[in-house]
DNA sequence: AAAATAGTGTCTTTGAGACAGTATGAC
DNA sequence: GTCATACTGTCTCAAAGACACTATTTT
């Protein structure tokens, strides 16, 4: 039997550039932070020396899929392998990259505070409080992407368990509440908060944890590390 | 002054194929329907004669942006110019298109029932009830995209004004409620429904409309045609 | 008048926030 | 013991669902 290899027409269309960018969030010192990288200064590079979101071209030989590409970029910059990673959206037009018509697939990731704070000391990579990062003039349309990411995160935090992915396990309910408050920028009622978290049953007790002062607290970890839990209601935000 | 034209390095990376697909919803005969198109049978075309979502390659010469490209494809297939159009997500990997590594940007659109029902008679284009469409074997990964779109629509209908974009204006509250019920697949309480719609204040009275039988009803139109309204709560879905 | 549909009023239930109270650990 | 923090109980209030009622138009 002759193995018949089907030949498909290649298109006449000029192909746009395709990139993947990742907005990586963490909480450091009670602040929501985002990772920025400095663009190279070499000749022929757009936006030389400008701060940007980590990202770059899809490598059709190495990346099996867009998600794999995003995971690779995250791993390269932070060493984190299995974070919370969600697609944010895509942006594409003729002007956003001076090299030509380009489209980028943006993801956002949540990771616990990285142990090696080296990253924040490097000259090509920096953890920046996200409000401050949003005020810098970033490369490409990364200001738009970053704003969208912050907005999406803040909005989802109102009714999902997303902040749990910003903490190293095990964590206590008071710690988790503090992260919610940091991201939302307002205090929450302790009793209502605890009821919500426990009713949702997405946490697993994992033994008492003793803090610096005061009474010991129950430690928890996520039952499912690969998806967020959606609560039936939103936190009442002064409706 | 010599006009210095900056030359940017073109990348060594092989460029993936870039397409845009649009999931176009409408309500016909009390059913949520989606528009499918038949792929050409010509040689060298992938998935010949298979049903697919409307879409195709980004044309870097004609399309200023991804959104403009999606609008063009919608206009070409339906003649509708200013519908509700929202980004759904993107899918990209090495295998989804036999012609090579490809990524697609998917949008979903909501339009009022098209007057020309010609479209549903054509051999290359068909309005299909969406549950039925989801059961067909579509081209590429369009089953995944369609499922995601249906899921997203159903989920957003629980807490947004999206169904209003599926009706021609002016519409009455009972008509709007029927669309909600069609999309959600369950009945809603009339009183609670009306309270929600009117409290959200996203509708504008536009005069009485008389139906076939019974009492005349107030006609409404959207105050803002370019964005959906988000309600403070979700419709209680048998929590 | 009867039928059909539009629109309103009221009761009940639910669940979240407020806030004060109790428990348990470190010193 | 005191202090600091973890955790719980109870009251109140608001919003949504249930459902019965009234209103207006067509036949």
From TrEMBL, chains A, B:
Please indicate which superkingdom the organism of origin belongs to.
Answer: Bacteria
- Sorted alphabetically, which InterPro entries does this protein's record hold? NUDIX_hydrolase-like_dom_sf (IPR015797), NUDIX_hydrolase_dom (IPR000086), WH-like_DNA-bd_sf (IPR036388), WH_DNA-bd_sf (IPR036390), WHD_NrtR (IPR054105)
**Keyword Hydrolase found:** yes
Which stretch is the leader sequence? none
Query: Nudix hydrolase domain: which residues?
Result: 15-153
UniProt keyword annotations, A-Z: Hydrolase
Q: Which SUPFAM superfamilies match?
A: Nudix (SSF55811), Winged helix' DNA-binding domain (SSF46785)
Annotated Pfam families: NUDIX, WHD_NrtR
GO MF terms held by the record: hydrolase activity
Please identify the protein, giving its name as recorded.
Answer: NUDIX hydrolase
The upper taxonomy is: Bacteria, Pseudomonadati, Pseudomonadota, Betaproteobacteria, Burkholderiales
């Amino acid at each position: 039997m002759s193995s018949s290899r089907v030949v498909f027409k290649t298109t006449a269309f000029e192909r746009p550039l395709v990139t993947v960018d990742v907005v990586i969030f963490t909480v450091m010192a009670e602040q929501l932070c985002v990772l920025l990288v400095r663009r190279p200064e070499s000749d022929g590079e757009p936006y030389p020396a400008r701060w940007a979101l980590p990202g770059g071209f899809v490598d059709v030989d190495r990346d099996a899929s867009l998600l794999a590409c995003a995971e690779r970029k995250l791993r390269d910059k932070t060493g984190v392998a299995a974070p919370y990673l969600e697609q944010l959206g895509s942006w594409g037009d003729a002007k956003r990259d001076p090299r030509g018509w380009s489209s980028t697939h943006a993801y956002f990731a949540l990771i616990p505070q990285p142990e090696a704070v080296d990253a924040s000391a490097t000259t090509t990579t920096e953890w920046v409080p996200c409000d401050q990062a949003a005020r810098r003039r970033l490369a490409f349309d990364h200001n738009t992407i970053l704003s969208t990411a912050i907005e999406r995160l803040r909005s989802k935090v109102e009714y999902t368990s997303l902040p749990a992915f910003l903490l190293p396990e095990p964590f206590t309910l008071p710690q988790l509440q503090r992260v919610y408050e940091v991201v939302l920028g307002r205090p929450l009622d302790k009793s209502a908060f605890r009821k919500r978290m426990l009713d949702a049953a997405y946490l697993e007790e994992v033994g008492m944890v003793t803090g610096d002062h005061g009474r010991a607290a129950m430690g928890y970890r996520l039952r499912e590390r690969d998806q967020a839990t959606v609560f039936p209601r939103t936190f009442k935000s002064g409706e």
